[in-house]
Write a structure and sequence with these properties.
By secondary structure, the protein is an alpha/beta fold. Helix content is 30%, strand content 25%. Bound molecules: adenosine-5'-monophosphate-propyl ester (PRX).
């Protein structure tokens, strides 16, 4: 594996941020040790907070289970003992394939206590992508729900010789049926006394997430135990998290947002993590926000837009005073959604920006830093972010405000990934002269707020211009008819590419030529003829990744394949491209 820090002239740069104070707050008793699980559980027990609820789980039928910090410390010690008993060595990968169930927490923290690398996979992946990730991650152990294992791993297990052990969770808390080469995880936990953590250091590997960005093959980004410093600092800086909070992160366990903000950040801050097993359903979600007295909520723009579709009146009927803040990640949160949220739920809606590679939030509309609806926010304390361009090989900062360039981050902060697995050669592209190039194009305004333009790969090359799809999408979203929209480049003989839009509509609006003409003229008025989309296709739903990102390359394939565009709606499969996208 290549190391991120050894890439092209990349070097560690000291920042003045007092990360050492956070390290001292979280590190274990032995000099130089740091373990995420100890920081997230045992640390609170030692400080007298053992009876506080660490995890509050809601099942699909709204059944609930609470796990205190003391129980979590005990359960993770048992899981670590089980893994050590299987011969897990420090640095070995343990893959996890389960939905949002309580055992996710004992598994993750147990893996960290055993010195292993936690590698959660999307439960919705098919057998092929799961096998590929088990292989690239060289997983020696898999902890999975019985049903997912039987459907998605068992048929190909013979082709995974490095996978030595499989620990299963029976359905609905029950025991596991006998299967070759598998054991019952819950039975083992009950029968095995807990052990303490092995001596991990801040640089020991801790978790592995696969990412494919919007293009390219999946590669695994590896993170170390040091990441917990950034998780704790951002939990406080962005969400103001502390012991009294009920924090709800809706992310799927396979997404790094779950590992960072569904597991580590709130637990390190001593809050109660709420975890809901069910999928997005606005009425259920409003009910949970209200009944569980959630204080801070971390979700996605897609979820917020889904709630917008159900109207502000429904949101207001569930309004609850406990809620302090809502934040989102994964895609731009347009200004309209920010003001809708503020009006409907009466709390600030904050956009935050980060990537699998950065491991934690690095740019945000954080309280105390000012907020600007529609922007990603400013660099958080401890992070130096700049708009850069590369002329030849030398990176140069773009000095003028409101000028497009690539978002770059000065190395190094604690949650920065330590390298890619299965992605040789990728690092030279993203590290230059002590900066990490994110692959996202942005502008920075005179007050330091960053504005998302698009992925470098998604730019539309139109005549001599580079058009960022988000700018066009953001404007179309301002039209009351448009619920969601994706803009891509369609080949054009004269201009090389022209922007075209795929839009889904809000209730009460009818797709048809009249609305198409209205939207095209609205776009021309607002954006001018060059940036305005040349065509608009109406779709019921946009193709998305599991994490809610619009799959522009699927739209692009459609724009390429259907020159006259008439049949695009019918041609879109219900969940296209899902199998390879994080
Ligand atoms: O393009 C950016 C987009 O999501 C990418 C990172 O994806 P992933 O690694 O799956 O995310 C992990 C945790 C978020 C970024 O390169 N992205 C993320 N947040 C935003 C965003 N685009 C616009 N605005 C955001 N707030």
């Amino acid at each position: 594996m290549a190391s991120a820090k050894s890439g092209n002239a990349a070097k560690t740069v000291e920042t003045s941020f007092p990360w050492d104070e956070t390290l001292a707050e979280l590190s274990g008793p032995a000099d130089g040790c740091l373990n995420i699980a100890t920081a997230c559980a045992d640390h609170h027990v030692a400080a007298g907070r053992g009876d506080n609820v660490a995890v509050r789980w809601l099942g699909r039928r709204l059944e609930r289970r609470d796990i205190t910090y003391r129980q979590l410390a005990d359960l993770s010690g048992r899981a670590a003992a089980v893994l050590a008993g299987l011969g897990l060595a420090p640095g070995d990968t343990v893959a996890v394939l389960m939905d949002r169930v309580p055992e996710l927490y004992s598994a993750a923290l147990g893996i960290w206590k055993a010195g292993g690398v936690y590698c959660p996979l999307f439960a919705a992946f098919g057998p092929g992508p799961i096998k590929a990730r088990l292989e690239v991650g060289r997983a020696r152990v898999l902890i999975a729900s019985e049903e997912l294992y039987l459907r998605k791993v068992a048929p190909g297990r013979a082709g995974l010789p490095q996978l030595e052990h499989v620990l299963l969770l029976g359905e609905d808390g029950g025991s596991v049926r006998p299967h070759d080469g598998c054991s019952d995880f819950r039975a083992l936990l009950a029968a095995t006394p807990p052990v303490g953590p092995v001596a991990t250091t801040p640089d020991s590997p801790a978790f592995l997430h696969f990412t494919s960005g919007t293009t390219g093959t999946p590669k695994g980004a590896l993170h170390t135990h040091r990441a917990v410093l950034a998780h704790l600092v951002t939990a406080r800086a962005v969400f103001g998290l502390g012991e009294a909070d009920i924090f709800w992160c809706t992310a799927d366990p396979g997404w790094i947002t779950s590992t960072a903000y569904g597991v580590i950040a709130p637990l390190a801050a001593g809050a109660t993590v709420l975890v809901d097993e069910a999928d997005v359903e606005p009425r259920r979600w409003y009910g949970i926000l209200h009944d569980e007295k959630v204080t801070a909520w971390y979700t996605t723009p897609t979820a917020i837009r889904t709630m917008m579709r159900f109207g502000a009146a429904l949101a207001r009927s569930y309004r609850e005073n406990s809620l302090r803040v809502v934040a989102s990640v994964g895609e731009p949160l347009n200004g309209e959604a920010v003001s809708w949220g503020q009006k409907a739920l009466g709390v600030p809606f904050l956009d935050t920006w980060w990537q699998t590679e950065t491991g934690a939030i690095v740019v945000a509309n954080a309280p105390g830093q000012g907020r600007r609806p529609g922007s990603m926010g400013r660099a958080l304390p401890g992070v130096e972010a700049a708009v850069m361009r590369c002329d030849g090989t030398a990176p140069k900062a773009v000095e003028a405000a409101d000028t497009v360039g690539e978002l770059a981050l000065r190395l190094d902060w604690p949650s920065m990934f330590s390298g890619y697995l299965g992605g040789n050669g990728l690092l030279t592209n993203c590290f230059r002269e002590g900066w990490y190039f994110t692959g996202d194009l942005v502008k920075q305004d005179a007050d330091g707020f960053f504005w998302f333009i698009g992925r470098v790969d998604d730019m539309i090359k139109c005549g001599g211009l580079q058009i960022g799809p988000f700018e066009v999408e953001g404007m179309l979203m301002d039209h009351p008819a448009v619920a969601e929209v994706g803009v891509v480049g369609k080949p054009d003989l004269l201009l090389r590419e022209v922007p075209v839009a795929f839009a889904s509509l809000n209730p009460g609006f009818e797709a048809g030529d009249a609305l198409r003409a209205e939207l095209l003229s609205f776009a021309r008025q607002e954006l001018g003829n060059v940036l305005a989309p040349r065509e608009i296709y109406f779709v019921d739903e946009l193709p998305k990744t599991f994490t809610g990102k619009i799959l522009r390359r699927v739209l692009k394939a459609k724009a390429l394949a259907e020159p006259d565009g008439t049949d695009l709606l019918a041609a879109l499969p219900p969940c296209p491209g899902r199998f390879d996208d994080e």
